[in-house]
Amino acid sequence: MRFLAGAVLVVILPGILWAGFTSMEEGARATGMGGAFVGVADDATAVFWNPAGHALGEGFKMTAMRTRLFSVSGLSEDCIALSYSGWQKAGFGFGWTRAGVEDVYSEDAFVVGTGRKLFSDRFSIGGALRIYRVSAPGYDYYNDPNFNGPGTGHAFDVGFLYRAPRWSLGCVMRNMGEPEINLISTTEDGDPIFSEFRVGGSYTFRDAMLITGEVRRARDVPDYYEDKLSYYLGTEIWFFDAFALRTGLNRNRAAAGVGLRISKLTVDAALLSGRRPGNKYRLSVSLDGLLMPKREREAKPKPAPVVKPPPAPDECEVLARKYDEAVAALELSQTRLEEESRIAADLKAKITRIDTELLELGDETVRLERELEEAMRLPSTWTVRKGECLWWISGYEQIYNNPLEWPRIYEANRDQIKDPDLIYPDQVLRIPR
């Protein structure tokens, strides 16, 4: 019965599983994010997604994945990925994947990749070699003479990645060389593994939510896909750096996942829905942060040397020292207060003196204003009346109010007064002020 089921699977599985070489989407974390991982590529599975990611990591990382496919017993997808980053601005990775049915049909891919930083610590370029192997031991049961045995092929990947503090952008060209693998000699054309271009990016929102997107363009696709161009979206939210929730959209299929982190160990689970031929259930276990580069270890702060505390002084000595310090502080405060009081007294005396001067200046201003008004009211000329003399005129209140000032009038009118004792009525005299 097992071989009968295997015979059926041998016929139908190549059409279903052949896409595993191009779209297995390794890692439960990436699967839970809808497969939008080219712009992230920050764990051991970077060797599959974007080899440039190896150069931007640190230390040794490892991921192992197990997949249950379509609820079919014995049908699975598995992968193992190893990477090391931090040597001479470069990183390296190795990965192995297998998709198939035990003892019936299998597709294996071996990937070796490397990446190196260029121009800055944020930009890197990477490349990978892929070796594909397809085997169908189920054919041996029928002794089919047309069966060629296991087939192999190889292809290359080239990728770029730029990672800023909050966002990243990456692209990769996969399966350059497009190998063809043929298991049956009666088939004229082998089954090609088509090349594909992928570009994606990510953005970290408030250091907690990662939003990713990706676009893929394949040179050709299986008939059950409607378009060569496909879109992928995903999100990842971490809570307290210990628990993660993920969701995504993979073409027209929904994806979801969770993650649990304990120190350097992370366990991820994901579900990828699908109408044809069913759902995928994935579980990954990852280790990271191992064998950190020497420069990273040196950058970590060294623990402070332990200094033994001095012996505790006598309590009386402590109290006496505190008393002396308090007295000194009080004396200093008192000295400052006395100095400030003296300065305040000087300022008050200056203000009082200025107020007095302002009052005196006001009185003087009033007196001058009055004199000016009076001067403006006094006559500037005088018409001599019968019986008057310079003595009498100078003594008038509106003139000088002082008879002894008569010489001022005489001096101002010498052009018309020849003798100060002789003036005439109706004579107009100038009154100097």
Description:
With 433 residues, this protein is an alpha+beta fold. The protein has three domains: 2-299, monomeric porin ompg (Porin, Beta Barrel); 315-377; 381-430, Membrane-bound Lytic Murein Transglycosylase D, Chain A, CATH 3.10.350. Helix content is 26%, strand content 38%. It has eight helices and 18 strands. It has helices at 2-17, 20-23, 28-32, 46-49, 294-299, 315-377, 390-395, 406-412; strands at 59-69, 75-87, 90-101, 105-117, 123-135, 151-163, 167-176, 180-181, 191-192, 196-205, 209-218, 229-239, 243-250, 253-262, 265-272, 280-290, 381-383, 428-430. The strands form three sheets. A 14-stranded antiparallel beta barrel has the order 1-2-3-4-5-6-7-10-11-12-13-14-15-16. Strand 10 (196-205) and strand 11 (209-218) form a beta hairpin. The protein is elongated and about 170 Å long. The N and C termini lie far apart (147 Å). Residues 1-20 have low confidence and may be disordered.
Structural features:
alpha+beta; Porin; Membrane-bound Lytic Murein Transglycosylase D, Chain A; 14-stranded antiparallel beta barrel; two-stranded antiparallel sheet; 18 strands
Sum up the overall morphology in one term. Answer: elongated
Point out poorly predicted stretches: 1-20
- How far from one another are the termini? 147 Å
Proper CATH architecture of the largest domain: Beta Barrel
> What is the CATH homology-level superfamily of the largest domain?
monomeric porin ompg
Beta-strand residue fraction? 35-45%
Order of helices and strands: HHHHEEEEEEEEEEEEEEEEHHEHHE
The total number of structural domains is 3
Would you tell me the overall average pLDDT?
A: 84
Task: Report the top-level CATH class of the largest domain.
Answer: Mainly Beta
Q: How is the largest sheet built, in terms of strand order?
A: 1-2-3-4-5-6-7-10-11-12-13-14-15-16
Gyration radius over CA: 53 Å
